[in-house]
Design a protein that fits this description.
The protein is mainly alpha-helical. About 80% of the residues lie in helices and about 0% in strands. It has 18 helices and no strands. α4 runs antiparallel to α16 (about 395-410). It is globular and about 65 Å long. It is found in: Cell membrane.
């Protein structure tokens, strides 16, 4: 696939602007769906604080701590594998509804777990919901959003992930005592119920409805967020480009026509994980405690890292449809690589596996997350929601999602043991090397998708 820099087909300049009611409806629907992103962030982030108290209460070794963290990710892999086919067959809305219900059950079981075995089962359940949400939420928002605001709206999912992580650190700080970890895990029930009730009022994706021959329902769904003229024009464009599409199996997605887009989605997802972001999110309090911080100070410092993550994601949300995907992704990932080199150097200059300065460690982690948030943090969900045809978006984006969760599982299961084997310097520098390889590939292969219709993007990536 050659590098693509052209903008391609965009929303016609004369398209009538959305009414205030349509804008509210569009933002409301996106926000409800993005509660799945909040729960994704909360349930992945809260374990970093809870683990400081779960480990001594249940007598967990480093290995069992890693298993407890990674059990959620194992569930996420299974969730993504199932959700790809389910969301294409049953629809985006129904899949979101089931995911919200599973989030609620997982939160309750986590909070009452009498031992590590039940906790692991609960985290597998939460993982199923997270895997489902990570695939379905961006796909749903991308399919209801106009081209000119799709980047911001899909990126709302990533913003809500960072908000969830930040809130999880805040809750961890507020419940900083032995039994407080049960409240930390159980409070995930509140947003899960809010999402469940909100999804009941959502319309189905108009693109999914049209793909099932339900044109009038698709038109009604579009009219919630479009003027009548814009709705008819969009229906015509979708129908014209969908006419040539046939039902596609997973095997068909590996054929030459689809291979460039699938490979791009996989590489974006792999780079997202191989720079070690979830090693930071899951184990930041543990790393800071090992660097000499007390439990409360470690969680409070992690709260600062989470705040940086959230604020920079919000800034990127405002820029992504103006600046474009390529500058944010390539520039930010380059700074991520630099931050990883600096973090490794801090440990290299220190003694006994500690950095030369705890304050510099916090600053380095903040630089890392500030660069990651508007680049790879946004890109994995946004790019994978934009580059595939509607009829196969669920199945095709599952390749990237499975890559993300599979590598996340592998990294979370090996962070502490890898640090023991290679030292923190070796760990950070390996992550930096992977980031550099990702920058080189994406510089050559990533097209700019700003302002282009989903149908135009997917057509341009055909092999």
């Amino acid at each position: 696939m050659s590098q693509t820099h052209t903008v391609g087909t965009t929303t016609p300049p004369g398209s009538p602007p959305l009414t205030a009611a349509a804008r509210r409806s569009l933002l409301g629907a996106s926000a409800v769906a993005a509660l799945g992103g909040f729960l994704f962030g909360y349930d992945t982030g809260i374990i970093s604080s809870a683990l400081l108290f779960i480990a001594p209460e249940f007598g967990l070794s480093d290995g069992m701590q890693q298993v407890t963290v990674a059990s959620l990710l194992l569930g996420a892999i299974v969730g993504v594998l199932g959700a790809g086919a389910v969301t294409d067959a049953a629809g985006r809305r129904r899949t979101l509804l089931v995911g919200a219900a599973v989030f609620a059950v997982g939160a309750v079981v986590s909070a009452v777990a009498p031992g590590v075995e039940v906790l692991i089962v609960a985290r597998v359940l939460l993982g199923l919901a997270i895997g489902t949400a990570s695939l379905t939420v961006p796909a749903y928002i991308a399919e209801i959003a106009p081209a000119e605001s799709r980047g911001r709206l899909v990126s709302l999912n990533q913003l809500m992930i960072t908000v969830g992580i930040f809130v999880s650190y805040l809750v961890g700080y507020l419940f900083d005592d032995g039994e407080g970890w049960r409240w930390m895990l159980g409070l995930g029930l509140v947003p899960a119920l809010a999402m469940l009730l909100g999804v009941l009022r959502l319309a189905e994706s108009p693109r999914w409805l049209l793909g099932r021959g339900r044109r009038e329902e698709a038109r009604a769904a579009l009219l919630r967020t479009r003027t009548p003229e814009a709705a008819e024009a969009e229906l015509a464009e979708i129908e014209a480009l969908s006419a040539a599409e046939t039902r596609t199996s997973y095997r068909d997605l590996l054929r030459p026509a689809m291979r460039p887009a699938v490979l791009l989605g996989v590489v974006v997802a792999a780079t997202n994980q191989l720079v070690g972001v979830n090693a930071v999110i899951y184990y930041a309090p543990t790393m800071l405690k090992q660097a000499g911080f007390g439990s409360s100070a470690a969680i409070l410092s992690s709260l600062g890292i989470g705040l940086v993550n959230m604020c920079l994601t919000f800034a990127a949300l405002l820029l992504v449809d103006r600046v474009g995907r390529r500058p944010l992704l390539l520039g930010g990932t380059s700074v991520v690589v630099l931050a990883l080199v600096l973090l490794g150097a801090l440990y290299l200059m220190g003694d006994d596996g500690r950095p030369v300065s705890g304050g510099l460690l916090v600053a380095g982690l903040c630089l890392y997350i500030a660069a990651f948030a508007p680049s790879l943090g946004l890109a994995i969900w946004l790019i994978n929601s934009e580059i595939f045809p509607t009829a196969v978006r669920g199945k095709a984006s599952s390749f990237g999602n499975v890559t993300h969760w599979g590598l996340d599982f592998a990294i979370s299961l090996t962070v502490l043991t890898t640090i023991n084997a290679l030292t923190p310097t070796g760990l950070f520098w390996i992550y930096g090397l992977f980031g550099l390889l990702g920058v080189v590939y994406l510089h050559r292969k990533l097209p700019e998708t700003k302002g282009r219709s989903l149908e135009d993007i997917s057509a341009s990536l055909r092999g």
